[in-house]
# Entry
Amino acid sequence: MTNIPESSELTEEEKGTVGLGNPPVLADPSETVLSGRGLIKTFGRVVGLDGVDIDLFPGEVLSVIGDNGAGKSTLIKALTGALMPDYGQVYLDGNEVHFKTPQDARGSGIETVYQTLAVAPALDISANMFLGRERRRSGPLGSVLRMLDKKGMKEAAGTSMANLGIATVQNMGQAVETLSGGQRQAVAVARAATFASKFVVLDEPTAALGVKETGQVLNLIQQIKEKGLPVILISHNMPNVFEVSDRIHIARLGGCAGVITPKSHTPTEAVAIMTGATTLQKG
Amino acid sequence: MTTTVEPQAPHTAAEQFAIREQSPLQRIQHILHSHPSISPLLVLVISVIAFTIINPRFIQPATIGIILQQVSVIAALAIGQTLVILTAGIDLSVGAIAILSSLLMANLAAKNGVPGPLALLIGVAAGLLAGAINGALVTRLRLPPFIVTLGTLSIFTAIALLYSGGQQVGRRQLAPSLLWAGTPIFIGPLRITTGVIIVALMAVVVAFILSQSSWGRHVYAVGDDAEASRLVGIRVDRVLFSVYALAGLIYGITGWVQIGRSGTASPNAIVDANLDSITAVVIGGTSLFGGRGSIVGTILGALIVGVFRIGLSLAGVDDQWRLFATGVLVILAVSIDQWIRKVKA
# Structure
C-alpha cells in the first residue's frame, strides 16, 4: 500500500533543501478550528512530542504524515484527549481546552475514526451509527418506558449515509458483519461526520482496506470537507495524502519537520523531508 | 483536486458472483441469521408433534401444565444466564445464588421471626448483592467470568450451607408469603402456578428492556465487540456490572419461585441448575461468544428440555435417554450457531 521510496533513490538535486515551507509565523488561535502550541509529551526518557505546534483551519483537510515513531499518533492523541500532554496548550475555536478523556473531546464536537474498524459486527448499521447515543421515542414511551426510537434512527442513518453519497448500502437494518471492509469503514466515517460539529480525525482509515475501498473512503473525506467540516487525516499513503489534502503536516522525531501543500511539493520531496534526507528551508 | 470516480463498468466477475442466485440452503442460513429464534421454535414444534404422535396424552392440558411448572425454575435462571452470556461471559453461580436466597428468606422467617414479606425482600436483595459481587470481581479485578463464578459458586454454596446448617426448611415452617409462588392457577383446563406467571413476567420485562432500551443495545454491543463499544463511549465496565447484578436479582427471585415449586427451602435443590440453565440458553440459539441471542430463544430452549423430559417418559423411554437427547441438542445448537455466523452478504 505505502509508496515510500528508499532515500537512496533520491537524486542529488533532491537532497539538501527544497522550496519554502509554511511561514514559521503561527496563526492566531482565534482564526483556527484547532491549535496546538508547544506540545510536549514524554514517556519516561522517550520523547513523544518535542514542542510541536499545529493549526487546523476551517474547511480544510490537514494530513499528518511521518515515519513510524515520528509522533503522529501521540500528536493526535494529545489533541483528542486520549493522552494528556505534559506541557503546551490546545485551543478549540480560540478557547483553551483541557481534554482528559476521548469522551471530553467527543463532547466538544470532535469525532475520531480508528483504523481498527470500530464497529460492532452483529449490530445493524443504524444501531452502530447511534451506538452510545441512542435516541428515545417522544412522549411517555420514551421518557417513562425509555423505549428506543428505532424507526427514527434508521431513517436518520439512511439520510446520513445518502448525504455522504454512500449508495451501495441500502438497508439500515443489515448487520454490519454482512458488509465489506470498505462499507464498514464507511459506516464509521458516516457516524463521525454525522456527530462531529468541529472536526473529524481519521486515523489511518484506509490501512485495512483494498484499493477500491480506499477510493470510497477518500471520496467520503471530500464529502465531509464539502459539508464544511475540517478533517485531520493520519496516513502513510502518499498518493492518498496528496490526493485529498490542502496542507500536510510532516511529523519527524517528535517534532514538526514542516508544513507543505500538494501544490508546493511533490510526494518524493515529502518523503525526503519525512525521512530527514532533506530539510525544509525556513522562511 | 481530483475526486475518485467509481468506474461504471459492467459487473466484474466478483460482483456477478455476489449477486448470484442463492441456493435454498444459503437462503435458510440468511433467514436464521436475521431471526435466530426460528431454529429453537422449529425444534419445539417438531418435538411436540412427534411426542403427541407417540403418545396422545402428551398434548393434554394436564401434561402441558406439568411441563410449564417443571420448566419455570430453570427458565427463570436461564433469563439471568442469557444476560451474562450475551456479554460473552458465563455464570456458574446461578444455582448457588438461588439456593442462598431461598435458604436466607426461609430461615429468616422460620427461625428469626422476621415477617414473611420482609424476609422475602431480604432474600431477593441477597441475590442482587451476590450478583453485584460477581460483577465487581469481573470488572475490578478483570478476572475471566468463568473463574470468578467458579469461585463464587463454592463461596455462595458454603455460605448457604453454613448459614442453614445444611438443614432444609419444611412446608409447615414456611411463611405463607414465601409459599405464594406455588399457588395453583387455572386457565381453563390448564393448571399452572403463580410461579409460572412470575417467571413469564420476568421474561417479558427482560426481553423488553433488552430489545427496546439503549442499555439492552449496549449489552449486545459489549458482548459483540468490547473494544469498539469502549471507543464509541459506552462505559463497558458499568454495563458488565449491571448485567451481573441484574442476573443476581433474577436468581434471587427464582429462589422464591423454587420454594413455591417444591414447598421447601432445601440446600440440595436444583443442584444441576448451572448446566441446565446454560443448556437452555445454548439450545435457544444464544451464542456463547456473546452479542447474539434473545430471551425468546432461551424460553424456547428451556421448554424444549422440558418437553423432552416429559415426552420421553410418556413414550416409555428410560430417563437416561433424555440426558442423551439433551446432549445431542446442545451440540446441534452450537453447530448451527457456528454455521449461521459464517453468513456472507
Q: What stands out?
A: Residues 31 and 270 of chain B are 36 Å apart (CA to CA). Chain B touches chain A at residues 1-4, 6, 33-34, 212-214, 217-218, 220-221, 224-225, 227-229, 231-234, 291-292, 343-345 (CB under 8 Å). The longest strand of chain B covers residues 184-187. The first helix of chain B runs from residue 13 to 18.
